[in-house]
Write a structure and sequence with these properties.
Blueprint (H helix, E strand, L loop, with lengths): L1 E5 L4 H12 L3 E6 L5 H6 L2 E5 L5 H9 L3 E4 L6 H11 L5 E5 L32 H16 L3 E7 L1 E3 L11 H12 L2 E4 L5 E6 H14 L4 E5 L3 E3 H11 L6 E4 L1 H16 L8 H6 L8 H10 L1
Parallel strand pairs: 1-2, 1-4, 2-3, 4-5, 5-6, 6-10, 7-9, 8-12
Antiparallel strand pairs: 9-11
Helix pairs in contact: 1-7, 3-4, 8-11
């Protein structure tokens, strides 16, 4: 297949692209930087230079391929509308990548629930993430109204080394860097809030399975475990040689310095179950988060 990937130099998009190239697919990668184009070429990816705001470039690239995997930005409605418009009545596959902060809360370090949300459960998003939820709904509805095989994949906290030009995720590397600066594993408030997680290799496998089997309009969480942020702080502390020492930072300071997105990313609960993904046949095999941290210590 000819597949367009937005965010082809990124952590998720680059990892998916590498697996698709290795599987014999023809991958076209959107990149914002002319300097990245030859680096994509070296990886067997045909570069298209443009941004998510370049509607004509997006439209032409999407219409020239068999499927589109959108990983560049979970909060860019213009690109979503452009891709849906370009593929209308084509029956082609359009996979959109969102993130499990859509189910995050304002617990601010407290523990919320022992019952994870599944893909079919109803929830009320916090105001900051309502636009993302609406965009996911628009995409899924396009399977019925626009004649596109649209699918939404919703990763949780991702860990593991990526296979793209950018090999690190967002949340955990930033927590590691902050913990190294402080001299102890860092959590926020009481640190009892829990986040589900998934290894990047398992996430990539879900993309390929969705390409093969998922019906239009479907939605899949990607998770293979969960931990509290205090537990995560302990794992980070041990991996950095701090002997498991941890320290709590005020949630108010996170909000003041980094805003609402950071608050939802480190002080909320995002506890989900990938029930539909497993029913589709997804079977995660990569190391758990705790096992992965042991490999960091060994290195």
């Amino acid at each position: 297949m000819r597949i367009l990937i937005t965010g082809a130099t990124g952590y998720i998009g680059g990892s998916v692209a590498a697996k698709l190239v290795a599987s014999g697919h023809h991958v076209v990668g959107l990149t914002r930087s002319q300097k990245s184009a030859p680096l994509l070429k070296e990886r067997g990816i045909d570069p298209v230079v443009g941004t998510l705001d370049d509607v004509e470039i997006l439209t032409e690239a999407a219409r020239a391929v068999d499927a589109v995997i959108h990983t560049a930005n979970a909060d860019h409605p213009g690109s979503v509308v452009a891709l849906v418009t370009a593929l209308e009545r084509s029956g082609k596959l359009l996979i959109h990548t969102t993130g499990s902060a859509i189910v995050a809360d304002h617990a601010d370090g407290e523990y919320a629930s022992a019952v994870p949300l599944t893909e079919d459960d109803q929830f009320d998003p916090v105001p900051y993430r309502r636009a993302r939820v609406d965009m996911n709904r628009y995409l899924r509805q396009a399977a019925i109204e626009k004649g596109i095989r649209t699918v939404v994949i919703c990763p949780t906290m991702i860990y593991g080394k990526g296979r793209g030009l950018h090999s690190e995720s967002e949340q955990i590397p930033k927590l590691i860097a902050l913990s190294r600066q402080v001299g102890a594993g860092v959590y926020f408030g009481k640190g009892l809030n829990r986040y589900s997680n998934v290894h990047v290799d398992d996430l990539v496998d879900l993309y390929l399975l969705v390409m093969e089997k998922a019906p239009g309009g479907s939605f899949y969480f990607a998770e293979n475990g969960q931990s509290s942020f205090k537990e995560l702080a302990e794992l980070i502390s041990v991996s950095l040689g701090f002997g498991g020492a941890t320290v709590s930072l005020p949630v108010e300071e996170v909000i003041r310095q980094h805003g609402e997105a950071a608050r939802l990313g480190v002080a909320s609960n995002s506890f989900v179950s990938a029930a539909n993904a497993r029913r589709l046949g997804w079977s995660p095999r990569a190391p758990s988060l705790a096992e992965w941290f042991k490999t960091l210590r060994a290195a």
